[in-house]
Structures are given as C-alpha cells and as structure tokens.
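Q: I'm building a small set of examples for a reading group on sequence design. Run inverse folding on the following structure and report the sequence directly after it, with nothing in between.
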C-alpha cells in the first residue's frame, strides 16, 4: 500500500476507533508558509511544513500530531518528523505510525519517553494529559483552553482571519497561566508577528468563558502612543465586540463598558486627581500592556504607577524586545516569558520577510575629519582642533556633504532597484529631527526628476511635524499609494507602527541599544503580498548592523553587500563583504552618551525638538551654540562593499569575498569549463545561465567592474575564478578572431558582414552579453536598418541567429 492507501485503510480507522471524530482529525495540516529566500530584487518561496494529521480537541485547539508512513515502512521512520511538528506546535504528544505500529513521543512530565503503544489515546484521555502538561487541569483551565476562537475578522479575500499556529500557542500558554493564578504574564513575539491578534483571541476566550463569575471580564489595553491604541481598537476589537463594549478613555472615567483602551498619558491627567485613580484598583480584571519594554519597564517610571494601581488585575505584557538592565527590567516586573516567538522563527516559517544588508562607509567615517587650527564653522564658530569621527558626526560635528553623499546613494539605489518604474518605500533613520530635516532636503535635491512627478516623494515624519506629519504617515503606510516614497525620521517610526509596504530601511543614526535595533529592523519585516514583497533591504551607513553579530540578536541577515560609488555619490558596483575585522566593538553596542550640556531648559536634543523651532538655519545656529559645529566644502565619497553569506547551519553568517562567492555559485552550475564556455557562446543558453547566476546574486555583466578587470569578458572571469584558467582581455580575443577567423567573416556578403563587424565592436566595448539578436535594436544598428531589414541581409531571422551564435563561439573559443 502507498502512504495514502495506508492512511485510508489503517490510520484513520485506528483514530476513529479510539473515539476521534472526523472534524477532530485535521489532515495535511499546514503549519507554516515555508522560508522565503531573497534574490537580488525579489524572493523565492520555500516549501511549507505540513503535518499528516493534527488532532484537535476543539476547533483550532491542537493537542497531538500524527506522522504516517506507508504500511511496509518502519513506524520509527516518522519519529523525527513527528517530533519536529510537535515542537513547532508547542505540543508534548506526537505519534508516528505505519498503520501496524504506533510510536508515541511524550514530552510531558519530568521524564520524556518514546514507546510503542497498542492504540491511539482517546480525545478525553489526550485532553486530560494535555491539560496536566499545561498545568491547567482545573475547571476554569479546561473551560478557558477549550473556549472557541473568534473568526469575525476577515482577510482581503474575505476568508476568516484565523490565528497562526504560534499565535494559538501564545494564547494557550497565556490562558494556562491565567488559570493557574499567575498575575503577571509576559509574551515575547517578534515585530510583525501579530501581538494584537494574540491579545484579541485571549480576550475573546476569556469573554466567552466563566473566568469571572456572573459577568464578562473588564479589560484595559494600555500603550504610550495613540497609534498603538487606535489601531487595535478600530481594526481588531471594535469589529469583534462592537461599540457598546469598547471604549477609549479620555478626559472622564466612563464605566459600563467591557474593553477599555487608554494611553498612559491620558490616565495621568486630571485637575484634582489623576484619571487612573478614579477607577478602583479592582475595577479591571485584565490589563494588557503593549510594547511593555518601554516606559512601564522602569522602576521609577510615572507609567509604572498606573500598573501598580491596578495590581489586583492580571497583567499581560506584550513586546518584541524585552529589556534587562539595572534601571529597566521587563523580566523583573513580568517574569520570564510564557512563550517566545523570535525573528529567526518568523523568517524560518515564512511569516516574516528576510533581508539583505548593504554596508556603505563614507571616507570621512573611515578616515575621520581633521580640522585646521583656528578653523571656523559655517556660522563663524571656532572649532576645537582635532580629528572628528563617526561618534561625533551629527552630534558634535555636522558635515553637510556627508548627508548629501548618503542621499545621492539612496536615490541611485532606489532607481537601480525600481520595478515597473516604482521605487520601493523607504524609511531613513537619522540622528535627530534636525539631521532628518537636512536629509530630507538632500534627498529632495538629489531626486529632482522624481519630485517633479510626485511632490511628496520624500517627506520628514517626526514628532515635530505635528498633524501634517501624521497625515503623511497615513499615506506612507498604504501599500497602494505612490507617495510618499521616502520617509525621513529620527526615532518616531522605529517601533509599534505597521508598515508592511516598506522595502528599504536606511540606517543613518548610530544605534547602541539592542531593543532599539530590533525594533528599527522590524519596520521592514512585515510581508506585503499585495505588492509582492517577500524580502527587504537594509542600507547601513553607520555600522549599526554589526549588532547582527551580537549573541543578543536572533535573526541573521542573508548577506551583506558593500557598495562602491564614484566621487559624486553614484553607485558603481557591489561585492560581498570580506571576512576580516568584523568583530563587534563593545563601545559600538553601549548606550550612547549625551553629547551636550544639560540646562534648566532640558537637554539640548529636547530643546532642538521643540515645536517652536522650525527654521533650519535657526536650528543650525542653535546647534552651534550647543557645541555642534556645521561645516561644508568637504570632499565626501563612498568606498568599500561587503556581503554576508549564510553558513551551512542555516543561521550563522559567514563573510566571503566576491571571488569566493562567485566561485561557489559557478561550481553549483555543475558544468565543466568547456561546457560552460560552449553554453555561454549561444545567446539562448547564455541568457538561461545569466538568469541562474542572477538568482544566486551574481550579476555577470557587472563582474568586470567588481573584479577590477574592466577589459576582461564575464565568461573569462567566471572560468578564472572557478578553475583558475588564464585571463584573456576582450581586445586580445578580438585581435585573434580577426586573424584566425577572417574566412568566417568573408563567407558573408558585404551587408551581412557589416552587421557582424558592428557586433564585434559591441563585444569589444561591452562584452559577450551583447552578442545577441536583441542588440540589433540599439545604435548603431538602428541607424543601419530595422531588425527585420537586418535579418533579411542574412536570409531571415533563423540564419541571423545562427550567424551571431557562430560568431560568438569562434570569438570565445580563441585562447
């Protein structure tokens, strides 16, 4: 019997014989979407993880997994698969069977076991074991975990928005902790993995149970930003629970509702008494704290007082980036997380977008900027003599050309990666609001062609931009909007905002905090199928991505590219990162120190962020008085490029040279040198080879520049880097061809020979990729005649194609 026949004849009857109903046996259960592998501009879908059967006690409540093998196979052949599926689904019970034998893998209790059993356990038996394993075998625990999920919300195709497997695990762990009487509960889920869905489904299950005897529970959803309160309220909870039960607290204490949303700031207001104190400490049964790694994590935080006031309630903290340091410790308040779903998990499952990293260093960052004795800045302030480096830039020393060079690079990159004429949405993170204003101006000037068509092509969105900035943010968030394309900010967009259409994250601010780094990178991790986004790019001007090498980071980039550019800032090439010198500098991951004096008026940065200061020149003058010096006329350009490659373990990153990268990709073609050369000579097969190399992030036409051999043809570079064959310049190939194959040219009539001779000149100028019929559609061929007319010189299209391929073979075989 085949596996399918074994399942129909033996496995399903064995399950139903143990009491499992047909709707409790979920066949071909798709656990994840399969890892997305980025290509230079797009991505490739991986195979999803699919379990043969998942056993559910109630709808969407899995308690066991079954891996089936064909009748004649050994049941033990399915044990490892079953264990993998169970681990993913957060289950302690898995089964492998061939229809004759059943192997049970049991991770519950103190001593996990693998053993053969005579029959599958019944639903009630396995349910009791599951509850005991979850430590939720009380009456309320059984009710909470079996309560139905809510399927009110709809996807864009009008199907029910069902929770993903890890969201169900998070909900189950949370409810089990609640049933066990745990008062503070922490959930850690990577940015973009749907913490709001977990919160909604947790509340829905509590709402439909008898957790609070005689009434529905009262819930308070807390955060510190309006968007983090309004989006969950409007997009998730209102459609499910309705306006009669959902309310946002503002101004006055309102009672009689079930689910309340509030900002910490709003709860602290009040003429005589703070608003939160006008609710009794026991009023709320559940408090959900979104982004709990921020203000509420600090012992001395004013916001902590709100949580402590409602301490009788069960409090659930949600975050992607818990923090643990002396003055702020998420774990100290909430305890260890009951469930963690990391960025690496999300990428592996295909629920988050993987990414590429391009590190771009500017000459002044590498060499430093040396001031002269007595030198004065743009505003006449004398600059202390010395060498200023990356730690000083934008904080103490502002080099206007540094920002302009970075802006030019970003524009060149967006133009080179445009699809159907559309540039990918991009966030640029700058040091502060003033730096963001200069970056916006520099990008605006560099993108004059784009700005003519889209006036809001580039905008600044910071806390100082007020309601207008929020309106621009609403437009930027839309996946179908043509503008803004580039949003320049400082820190406003680095956390808690859903931006699925973002394809590029530009780091132009030094980041010393791992939570901030993860949150910043998280702005690009959300998938956006509507625009075909399955990966994104990080452009790093400040070496912030060295934090990828820190043990505290859990999601490695797929590769790092180091780009080179000319003195005007135009992109001219890319190459993989070289391995040496990439250790994490302990100073680079330390919290940055304040660069300015503190005054009674607040910190210097706080005074800069004051909404009353809008004029850029006035801000620059304030900066000069605050020990920040502004200079121009500095020659700034970019150099160097590096690339990361995933090692064989699929997680850690290995830095490789461009030569090693291309060497490995060519050998993967599994072609002998002569076979590679002969296939390259034919236009059709060359196109196929170039597509394969392109998918592996090798741009054949760019190799001469990347290898520093602009006079050598790509095929010779490929043969040299893979097998060490000698390099032959294009000029030398052309010279030998003209001496050894003159009879080939003379075999054609004058008009046809003219076409082939022009094709040889194209080869000499641009290389073998131009040896194709499509080249006839460009100058100088268009000045000779149309493609049809040129083909007629050879007797038709087929003889023309054959002549070009034969020319290519003879040209490339000359050694």
């Amino acid at each position: 019997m085949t596996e399918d026949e074994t399942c129909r004849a033996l496995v399903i009857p064995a399950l139903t014989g143990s009491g499992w109903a047909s709707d409790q046996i979920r066949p071909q259960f798709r656990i994840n979407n399969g890892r997305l592998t980025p290509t230079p501009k797009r991505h490739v879908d991986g195979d999803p993880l699919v379990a043969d059967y998942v056993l559910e006690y109630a709808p969407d409540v899995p308690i066991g997994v079954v891996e089936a093998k064909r009748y004649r196979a050994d049941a033990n052949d399915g044990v490892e698969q079953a264990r993998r599926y169970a681990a993913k689904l957060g289950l302690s019970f898995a089964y492998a069977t061939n229809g004759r034998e059943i192997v049970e893998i049991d991770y519950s209790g103190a001593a996990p076991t693998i053993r053969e059993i005579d029959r599958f356990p019944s639903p009630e038996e396995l349910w009791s074991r599951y509850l005991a394993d979850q430590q939720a075998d009380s009456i309320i625990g059984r009710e909470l975990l079996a309560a139905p999920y809510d399927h009110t919300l709809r996807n864009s195709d009008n199907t029910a928005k069902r929770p993903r497997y890890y969201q169900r695990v998070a909900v189950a762990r949370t409810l089990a902790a609640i049933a066990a009487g745990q008062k503070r509960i922490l959930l850690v889920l990577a940015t973009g993995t749907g913490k709001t869905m977990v919160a909604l489904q947790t509340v829905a299950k509590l709402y439909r149970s008898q957790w609070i005897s005689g009434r529905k529970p009262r819930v308070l959803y807390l955060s510190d930003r309006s968007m983090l309160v309004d989006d969950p309220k409007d997009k998730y909870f209102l459609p499910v629970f309705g306006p009669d039960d959902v309310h946002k607290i503002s101004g006055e204490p309102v009672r009689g509702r079930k689910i309340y949303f509030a900002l910490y700031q709003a709860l602290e207001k009040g003429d005589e008494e703070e608003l939160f104190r006008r609710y009794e400490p026991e009023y709320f049964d559940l408090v959900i704290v979104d982004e709990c790694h921020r203000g509420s994590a600090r012992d001395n935080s004013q916001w902590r007082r709100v949580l402590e006031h409602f301490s009788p309630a069960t409090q659930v903290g949600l975050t992607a980036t818990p923090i643990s340091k002396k003055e702020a410790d998420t774990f100290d308040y909430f305890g260890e997380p009951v469930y963690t779903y990391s960025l690496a998990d999300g990428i592996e499952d295909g629920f988050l977008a993987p990414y590429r990293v391009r590190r771009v260093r500017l000459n002044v960052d590498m060499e430093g900027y040396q001031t002269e004795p007595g030198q004065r800045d743009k505003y006449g302030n004398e600059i202390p003599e010395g060498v200023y480096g990356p730690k000083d830039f934008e904080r103490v020393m502002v080099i206007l050309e540094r920002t302009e060079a970075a802006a030019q690079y970003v524009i060149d990159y967006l133009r080179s990666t445009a699809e159907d004429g559309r540039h990918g949405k991009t966030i640029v993170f700058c040091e502060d609001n003033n730096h963001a204003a200069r970056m916006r101006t520099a990008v605006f000037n560099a993108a004059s062609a784009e700005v003519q068509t889209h006036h809001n092509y580039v905008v600044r969105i910071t806390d100082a931009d007020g309601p207008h900035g929020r309106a621009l943010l609403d437009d930027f968030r839309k996946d179908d909007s043509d503008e803004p394309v580039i949003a320049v900010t400082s820190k406003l967009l680095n956390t808690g905002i859903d931006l699925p259409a973002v394809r590029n994250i530009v780091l132009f601010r030094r980041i010393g905090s791992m939570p901030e780094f993860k949150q910043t990178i998280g702005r690009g991790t959300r998938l956006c199928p509507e625009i075909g986004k399955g990966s994104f790019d990080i452009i790093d001007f400040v070496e912030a991505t060295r934090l990828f090498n820190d043990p505290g980071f859990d999601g490695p980039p797929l590769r790092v590219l180091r780009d080179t550019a000319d003195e005007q800032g135009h992109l001219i090439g890319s190459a993989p990162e070289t391995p040496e010198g990439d250790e994490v500098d302990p100073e680079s991951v330390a919290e940055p120190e304040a660069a300015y004096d503190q005054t009674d008026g607040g910190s210097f940065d706080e005074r800069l962020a004051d909404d009353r200061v809008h004029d850029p020149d006035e801000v620059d003058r304030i900066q000069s008085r605050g020990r920040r010096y502004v200079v121009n006329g500095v020659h700034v350009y970019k150099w160097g490029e590096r690339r990361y490659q995933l090692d064989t373990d699929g997680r850690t990153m290995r830095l490789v040279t461009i030569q090693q990268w291309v060497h490995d990709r060519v050998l993967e073609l599994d072609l002998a040198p002569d076979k590679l050369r002969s296939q390259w000579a034919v236009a059709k097969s060359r196109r196929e080879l170039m597509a394969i190399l392109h998918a592996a992030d090798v741009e054949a036409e760019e190799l001469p520049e990347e290898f520093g051999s602009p006079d050598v043809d790509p095929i010779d570079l490929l043969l040299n880097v893979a097998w060490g064959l000698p390099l032959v310049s294009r000029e030398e190939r052309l010279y030998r061809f003209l001496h050894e194959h003159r009879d080939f040219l003379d075999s054609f009539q004058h008009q046809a020979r003219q076409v082939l001779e022009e094709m040889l000149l194209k080869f000499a100028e641009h290389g073998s990729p131009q040896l194709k019929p499509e080249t006839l559609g460009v100058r100088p061929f268009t000045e000779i005649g149309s493609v049809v007319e040129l083909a007629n010189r050879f007797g038709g299209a087929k003889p023309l194609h054959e002549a070009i391929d034969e020319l290519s073979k003879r040209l490339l075989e000359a050694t």
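The chain has four domains: 3-32+41-133, 142-349, 355-382+394-639, 668-815.
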